[in-house]
Write a structure and sequence with these properties.
about 450 residues, 5-stranded antiparallel beta sheet, alpha+beta
Length: about 450
């Protein structure tokens, strides 16, 4: 490779690196990430192609599956955007770190030329000590300028220089925590009624619903859902907790949330008049017939106060158990045999089998989560807030006072972020002090 080609290649790599670490590129990535999250929130995640076809049509469904919009947060393009944004923030912070350390040190050390050349000035101040106090500055340090005149110098809020840097670090940790959490988190939903014990996914834990209560207000509206639960690990260890909406519990390294509720009922099946099986089903669950597993009874919905409205179908007039009814569907080898509403005193007959529904009761949905990177995202959020406080409320200020030949002091103030507001406040404070002295 010739020297000219080597130079051209190096310049190209340098320009590419500068672009990848630039602010415009970071802003573009943030906009893309925001649009991706907004789009994912508008499309139901994790469904099948047939479901999307039914909802959006074949063309849109095909586009959703091709672009992985059905699982946006695990798609290649979401990973790519997140990776580039993390690299951008990381390199930006690493590049700025030496310069930031140097600026922080320079803020402490007086630079007469820099302050007098760029700062706002007020002349004729007689009492320097009162002036520094008036400006809410720390005790100044004595020194001399190049001409041997006495100077006083003080700086404050040097840590404010780190505001943007800390904020960028927080955003980096937020993105890392969220992205890594999406790939490693465990999320399970356990449906059940009091007395039932069910497995928590593939964790090896068993969850028992000890009790479930629905707290009502005086007007019969729901105030709170509360569940008392027991988790066991199969090795003799148990942990108990009471959870309610917005009040989860931590057990076995996982977080248990009271998520929602619905209706459950007991389904009984007999064959030729003889007891065959029974089970408690939550709405949305099904049971295969014990000695004919191709025959399935699905519990679609429950209506506590059933009413059939012409043109609208079945509905409930209230949440009270005044006229309970059960909507079911029967499948045989994947084909629908029938669908109807069954009242408590009615029996569904399928050849030699008889099916009844009874004992309606509320069930609880316990959501169980484990995300090892939640603390990382939480730390990122804290750093973002800290960075904003540093950037907007702790603005670095430098004040230099130089003693003139007539014994008075000339004050110089420099605030790179303050602008006209700092200039006005600086001049007004010192002029008020001069008027008070005179």
């Amino acid at each position: 490779m010739t020297e000219e080609k080597q130079t051209t290649r190096e310049n190209g790599l340098k320009r590419a690196f500068q672009f990848l670490t630039s602010m415009p590129f970071a802003i573009a990535l943030l906009i893309l990430l925001a649009l991706a999250c907004a789009g994912a929130s508008m499309i139901t995640q994790g469904q099948t192609l047939n479901w999307y076809v039914a909802q959006y049509g074949e063309r849109t469904a095909s586009l959703i599956m091709t672009l992985s919009l059905d699982d946006a947060f695990h798609s290649w393009w979401f990973i790519l955007i997140s990776a580039f944004l993390c690299l951008n923030l990381l390199f930006c912070n690493l590049i700025r770190l030496p310069q930031l350390i140097s600026r922080t040190k320079n803020e402490k050390n007086v630079n007469v030329t820099a302050v007098t050349a760029a700062g706002v000035s007020v002349e004729g101040i007689e009492d320097a000590e009162k002036a520094f106090a008036r400006l809410r500055m720390p005790k100044p340090e004595e020194g001399q300028d190049e001409e041997g005149r006495k100077t006083l110098y003080a700086s404050k809020n040097r840590i404010g220089l780190w505001g943007a840097w800390v904020c960028h670090l927080g955003i980096l940790l937020l993105i890392l925590g969220f992205s890594l959490g999406q790939f490693t988190k465990e999320d399970y939903a356990v449906y059940g009624v009091p007395g039932q014990t069910k497995p928590v996914g593939e964790t090896g834990l068993q969850l028992t619903i000890d009790d479930f209560e629905i707290g009502l207000r005086e007007d019969d509206t729901v105030e709170q859902y509360t569940a008392r639960i027991t988790a066991s690990n199969g090795a003799g260890r148990e942990e108990k907790a009471e959870i309610s909406v917005n009040h989860p519990a931590r057990m076995f390294g996982m977080t248990f949330y009271q998520n929602s509720t619905g209706w459950a009922a007991r389904i009984g099946i007999t064959k030729d008049g003889q007891y065959l099986q029974d089970a408690v089903l939550c709405t949305g669950e099904f049971v295969p017939v014990k000695d004919k597993e191709d025959l399935i009874v699905y519990f679609n919905a429950f209506y506590p106060d059933y009413e059939l409205v012409q043109g609208q179908g079945p509905m409930t007039r209230s949440g009270n158990l005044n006229n309970p009814a059960y909507l079911y569907t029967v499948y045989y080898r994947g084909e629908v045999l029938g669908m109807n509403v069954l009242m408590p005193d009615e029996v569904l007959t399928i050849d030699e089998y008889e099916v009844t529904f009874s004992e309606p009761q509320p069930y609880t949905v316990i959501q169980v989560k484990r995300d090892a990177f939640t603390p990382l995202a939480f730390a990122g959020g804290i750093l973002v807030m800290l960075g904003l406080i540093l950037a907007f409320y702790l603005i670095p200020v430098r004040v230099l006072a130089r003693k003139e030949e007539d014994g008075t002091w000339t004050f110089y103030g420099l605030c790179q972020k303050g602008g006209p507001l700092f200039r006005e406040r600086f001049e007004n404070d010192l002029k008020e002090l001069s008027h008070a002295a005179s």
